[in-house]
Each structure stands twice: as structure tokens, then as C-alpha cells.
Amino acid sequence: MSKTNAVRLLESRKILFELKEYEVDESDLSAASVAAKTGLDADQIFKTLVLRGQSGELFVCVIPGPCELDLKKAAKAGGFKKVELIHVKEILPLTGYIRGGCSPIGMKKHYPTFVDETCLLFETIYVSAGVRGLQLQIAPGTLLEAAEAETADLI
Q1: For residue 8, is it within any domain?
Q2: What does pTM read for this prediction?
Q3: Quick check: 139 and 16 in contact, CB under 8 A?
Q4: How many domains does the chain have?
Q5: How far apart are CA 23 and CA 64, in angstroms?
Q6: How far apart are CA 65 and CA 45, in angstroms?
């Protein structure tokens, strides 16, 4: 397995994490699918979403996989009046990651990052390690530090 930007960054900072591989189904990249294949709790599998504020600034929201992002709450967290998700074709050029493999750690450029406050309910959570088929298990506080993120009410 080749190392992703997220894994390289965590290793270089000597941050504790574990990796969990799973078989990818290109037709279903949902957290429920990942949970079924890995035996993990879907509520602990967080997805990374990239958004654009009304003036063009980008930011990142990380929420539990089964949940929907509340755009009003995301806008408030980012300090915007209105936000929208970026288009799928923009994910790779802006982050260096592909849809279904976007990690909040190690993007091409650092964007303000907000992790839903429910992450603090768990000892560890899972986020993409930077490729489809590989999840990164990490303590929420460690993720916040590694991603230079803060918690927010996003769902």
C-alpha cells in the first residue's frame, strides 16, 4: 500500500493512528457501505466535505457519514452568509484527493476545517486516509490538532 499525504503527515509528526483497509464498491461510497465492510459503527465514520463561501473562500466540514450537512450551520461555522458544496470535478485539483477518498489531513492547501462536535462522543473516529478503501482511525482531539481544525455544530 502506498502512503498517502495524510499518512505521511501524521507519521512525520509522530501522531498515533491506525489504518483500516476495505474493499471499495465504486457504486456505493457511503459510510454505511464502509461500515458494513469493516464492521465499524457508521456513526464513527466521518466524511470530509469541501465548501465554498459566497465570496469564493473554501473551507472543510467533517461530519458523521450517515448525517447530512446543515448548510446554514456550516455557513455560520465558516463565518459566511451562504455556502455551497464544491462540484465533484473540483475536489481533486483543490485538495489532491478524489471523491470517496478525501481526507481532512494533508490537502494540497490548508483550508479552515470544522469537525462536527459529535466527534467528541467517541474515543476514536474514522476519516479517509486519502484514498478509497483506506480509513484512518484517530482520536478526535488528535484529528483536530492534525487537521488544524475546530469543532462546530454542523448537522
Answers
A1: no
A2: 0.96
A3: yes
A4: 1
A5: 20
A6: 6
